[in-house]
Amino acid sequence: MTWVANAWYVAGWDHEVDQAPLARTICGVPMMFYRNLDRSVVAMRDACPHRLLPLSLGIREGDSIRCRYHGLKLGADGFAEEMPLKGDPVNRRICVETFAVAEKHRFVWVWVGERAIADPALIPDLWPCSATGWAFEGGYNHVRADYRLMIDNLMDLTHETHVHAGSIGQAELMEVPIDTRVEGDRVLVSRWMPNVDAPPFWRGALKKPGAVDRWQICEFILPSSVIIDVGVAPVGAGATIEEHDQGVRGFVIDSMTPESETSMHYFWGMARNFDLADTGFGKRFKRAQGGVFAEDIVILEAQQRSIEANPDLKLQSYNIDQGGVRARQIIARAIRASAGVRDAAA
């Protein structure tokens, strides 16, 4: 297993989960999500306990779901409410597995692992997604690649120079030193680019001519999220790598939920502290950002195919890969710790 078992993962955007069942495989487990009439979220295994037809094909009846094959009716708690044959007594031992869920930062989260220890306080702190003074937009892609490859990608932004040459790439990304540090279960990769020309997007956001100081601070958060503090400020405004609210600032938000060992659900977006009243800007930027991430997806899916075609070869790590390497080490430690929890429970 390549993911942490006892952890919160993004199952969907808040607007994706509605009264109609949503099917999504999370960490190898087929799950189904829907909202009760009070808008709370239900998460259950997407398999009828009778003949294993996906419950996501079922019929909603109030807060319950009726299997479309033989009509077994299950409540939102997963327990049988009506049997397939009319008149048969309800057997409450018939049930389907349900999962702990929570809503935070515009996402629906599901706990994968031992439900008894699901603690909402452990949800990754993607604070810019819901903080006052920030606007947040984003999207979703299904990606046929190991989720850790996306973490590698996001923790090494030198790839922007070549993969995103027409949008956010900049030669200085390959020339400026990188600082990588580990703080507990977090990895931070920082890059400070003083007195450079702003790339087109940031020039438009700043709305000022002249050279800028630019920063990128990538932060990995267990089990599989990366937030990237990015922006520019006019040279002389006083911005530093530690304090940089003098210009325009954003947080690229990325959460990678494993589907299988070779595929993922990729939730992405950007929280910004500029042009807050311009809702059209948010939509336009979401479209542009989706185009940038589509370039990454082409690369990562090709990389995954190459990994599978070359089982005798191993990924190599250079200096630019330190952020991804450290993140993988933290994931590996958390997997071992999670396995210990399962062994103790057994």
Automatic annotation (TrEMBL):
Pfam families in UniProt: Rieske (PF00355), VanA_C (PF19112)
Annotated Gene3D superfamilies: Naphthalene 1,2-dioxygenase Alpha Subunit, Chain A, domain 1, Rieske [2Fe-2S] iron-sulphur domain
Rieske domain ranges (all copies): 8-110
Protein's UniProt keywords contain Magnesium: no
SUPFAM superfamilies, A to Z: Bet v1-like, ISP domain
Key words, A-Z: 2Fe-2S, Iron, Iron-sulfur, Metal-binding, Oxidoreductase
Domain of life the protein comes from: Bacteria
Family matches, as PANTHER family: 3-KETOSTEROID-9-ALPHA-MONOOXYGENASE, OXYGENASE COMPONENT (PTHR21266:SF60), IRON-SULFUR DOMAIN CONTAINING PROTEIN (PTHR21266)
Protein name per UniProt: Rieske 2Fe-2S domain-containing protein
Organism classification: Bacteria, Pseudomonadati, Pseudomonadota, Alphaproteobacteria, Sphingomonadales
